[in-house]
Structures are given as C-alpha cells and as structure tokens.
C-alpha cells in the first residue's frame, strides 16, 4: 500500500482528547495514547508539520545531563530512539556518533565528574576525559584552555524533522485526527473545566485538553485561564557548504554554549547561543548571531576558517525559570494538562 505524503484529512468533530501542538511532543503523545487503546484523539497544529521547534533543531541526542531526573528521562528516551524507526515504520536517520561535552571552567570539573558517576549508576556509559584524551580523540579540535570533558559514546543525531513525520504517520494509522493549518484561537470553560475549543475551522467539544504548543504554550494556557512561568527564546543555527570528511563526533562547549556536527553530506551544522538570550524572540536570523557563531567555531576548529556558511535559520523555544518542563494536570483547571516548557 503506497504511503501518503500527509496524514489523512479528517473532518473536524468532537473528541475525547484534544492535543494542541503538532510537534514531537504532541504527536508522540497522540501516538502512544492511541497505541494504549484510547480512542477519539485529535491533534491541532496551527501550521504545517515541523513548523515549530521540532523541525528547527539539531536533533542532538545525548544522555550526559547533570540532573538525575533529566539523565533518567533522556536515557529512557535513548532506548526508544534505538528502535523507533522499526516501530513507526519510518526511517528517522539516527546516526550514533558519540559526543564530547568540553569544559573550560575549573569550577565545572567537580560537577562534571559527579555527573558522570551519577550517569554511570543509571547505566549510561559516559566517562570523564582529560585534556590529553580529548586532544587524542579529536585532534582537529583546538583544546587550548580546555580542562577536560564528558564523552558519551551513545550520543547521536537524527534528521531533525523525520521524527515529526514518523509520529504523524503512525498516529494517523491508529486513527488519530491530525488537523494541520488548524489554529486553536480560544477555549470555553464551564464548571471550572475546558469543555470546548475554538479553532479557525470551527468549535468542537472535548473532555481533555493537552497543551503541547511549544513556544505558543503560554498563549494556549492563557485561553484556559492558566498562567505559565515560561518565556520565549530564539536560537539560531547555521549550515556550511560541504567539506571533506573531518569530524565524526558531536562537539559542544559549555562555556561557549556552542555545538557543531558534520552531516553525512559533509556540511557542518552548529551555532553558539547568544549570551543572556537578549533581544526579541523571532524567527529571523541576525548578522550578530552569525558573527558570534562563526568566531566561536573558527576558534575551536581553525581548519574550518574560510569554509562558507550557506544559510542560517532560527527557532523559538519556551523556557521555565529552572529549565525543567511542565508536565501534568493544571491544579487550577482540571482536565487541562501541560507538556511544555522543555527548552531546547
């Protein structure tokens, strides 16, 4: 049976569970709910598949997180990544490359070593590497001033929008209604619960609403009378012209908030996050960010000076004050659930 390019167009109708946001979070939730036996699920995406942060990221998958809760969650997800292409019948182009999280600040060394001990206790095979080991493993990298790093051999990258499409098709096959170009513009609250959502295509009744709207989560929550402590931030990345095979692992530097990897076609993809995330969050790129990223990457990899950057793009993320996601039912609005604030 030929594969459809887009999920099936379905009529707008009342549903049991309404998921606002058609990114990775919304679509994976819809798929897993349907897989567990739940029926009458609808996803509302205001634009096209992958229009938000799920289609604008580096798709870096690593388990070298400092906080135990994050490490447990990401390691669990890493196991899913290993078999997700088979489960969803869609090649998400996972490439296990390994990663090095490099450190310049002496104050971070003890924290990094404690994090490795914690990660190892969870079964994550990370290890702390010395400057000499880092230089031997990645001779292309300018390690001057670096004090070591964390090596995660299980880290990898995926095609950034492939997982979105994979979950969309898998959810569609299980009967989930994926409504594209369908913006949620309001909600009706009766008896303390959201019982209707208003869209640009009409109004429907629903029993439960899940807010997976990414950078638009605060606005969606406001429709339900819920205030979220999140704020939007813009991140920018670049891609270069193809270059000879040069870099296999993924490299990131904590102090520079920089990251870079080389694709199978030879391009370098990366960036350096702006200090303080100043400015208005928007989906436009800036010359200042381009210069900052180029300067950092050229310092880290002198051989790449002169390689042409072909294009840049921006994405919006939503961040909480402590950097942790918001998950679960809103206390002030029963039946209104949160899955947002996850950052980048």
Automatic annotation (TrEMBL):
Keywords: Oxidoreductase
Keyword Oxidoreductase: yes
InterPro entries xrefs: FAD-dep_OxRdtase (IPR006076), FAD/NAD-bd_sf (IPR036188)
Gene Ontology CC terms, in alphabetical order: cytoplasm
Domain FAD dependent oxidoreductase: from-to ranges: 17-344
Gene Ontology MF annotations: oxidoreductase activity
Top-rank lineage group of the source organism: Bacteria
PANTHER family linked to this entry: FAD-DEPENDENT OXIDOREDUCTASE DOMAIN-CONTAINING PROTEIN 1, SARCOSINE DEHYDROGENASE-RELATED
UniProt-recorded name of the protein: FAD dependent oxidoreductase domain-containing protein
Origin species: Spongiactinospora gelatinilytica
Lineage: Bacteria, Bacillati, Actinomycetota, Actinomycetes, Streptosporangiales
């Amino acid at each position: 049976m030929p594969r459809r390019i887009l999920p099936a167009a379905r009529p707008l109708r009342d549903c049991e569970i309404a998921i606002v946001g058609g990114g990775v979070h919304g679509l994976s939730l819809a798929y897993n709910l349907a897989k567990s036996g739940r029926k009458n699920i609808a996803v509302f995406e205001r634009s096209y598949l992958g229009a938000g942060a799920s289609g604008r990221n580096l798709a870096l998958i690593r388990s070298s997180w400092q906080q135990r809760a994050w490490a447990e969650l990401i390691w669990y997800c890493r196991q899913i990544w290993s078999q997700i292409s088979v489960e969803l019948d869609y090649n998400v182009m996972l490439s296990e490359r390994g990663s090095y999280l490099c450190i310049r600040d002496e104050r971070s060394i003890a924290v990094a070593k404690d994090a490795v001990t914690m990660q190892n206790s969870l079964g994550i095979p990370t290890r702390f590497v010395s400057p000499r080991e880092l230089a031997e493993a990645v001779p292309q990298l300018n390690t001057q001033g670096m004090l070591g790093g964390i090596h995660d051999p299980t880290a990898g990258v995926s095609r950034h929008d492939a997982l979105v499409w994979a979950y969309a098709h898998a959810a569609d096959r299980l009967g989930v209604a994926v409504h594209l170009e369908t913006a949620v513009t309001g909600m009706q609250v009766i008896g303390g619960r959201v019982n209707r959502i208003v869209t640009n295509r009409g109004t429907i009744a629903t029993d439960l609403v899940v807010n997976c709207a990414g950078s638009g989560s605060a606005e969606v929550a406001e429709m339900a009378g819920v205030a979220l402590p999140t704020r939007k931030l813009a991140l920018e990345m670049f891609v270069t012209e193809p270059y000879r095979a040069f870099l296999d692992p993924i490299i990131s530097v904590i102090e520079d908030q920089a990251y870079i990897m080389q694709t199978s076609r030879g391009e370098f993809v990366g960036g350096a996050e702006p200090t303080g995330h100043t400015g208005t969050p928007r989906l436009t790129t800036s010359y200042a960010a381009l210069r900052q990223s180029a300067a950092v990457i050229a310092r880290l990899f002198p051989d790449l000076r002169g390689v042409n950057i072909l294009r840049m793009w921006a994405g919006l993320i939503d961040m909480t004050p402590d950097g942790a996601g918001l998950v679960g039912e809103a206390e002030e609005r029963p039946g209104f659930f949160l899955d947002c604030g996850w950052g980048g």
